[in-house]
């Protein structure tokens, strides 16, 4: 009589989502630890960097670039607005344009040494092959999503 494999054992052994969530928590912790003395988290830094890079930009565009839902962006954006690192100005209709303030740009500059140290630690932890693989995977995802975004 053959034994039916335990589904929980299979998921525990093979689930990519579980592995990525562990990787995400560990890597996020490295960056958050580096940024903690400055009162910012990596999720907030990522939002600020997208806005600085592409701004003025609408919240929907930030969500698209970072693959976030609006409620997740809202939590980080509220803190950035409250701290005066980002400002929101009326745009067409009900939309708001987001841009990084001079104080936000100064914070990004101030965070660079901490970011570089966190970046170095993560590269040492995961190695160059995984780092390159992650960039390639995100590139594929963005390419696949750019086709669907055009039809929305």
Automatic annotation (TrEMBL):
PROSITE patterns: HTH_MARR_2
SMART domains: HTH_MARR
Residues covered by the HTH marR-type domain: 13-143
Top-level lineage group: Bacteria
InterPro entries: HTH_MarR-typ (IPR000835), MarR/SlyA-like (IPR039422), WH-like_DNA-bd_sf (IPR036388), WH_DNA-bd_sf (IPR036390)
Gene3D superfamilies in UniProt: Winged helix-like DNA-binding domain superfamily/Winged helix DNA-binding domain
Protein's recorded name: MarR family winged helix-turn-helix transcriptional regulator
Pfam families, alphabetized: MarR_2 (PF12802)
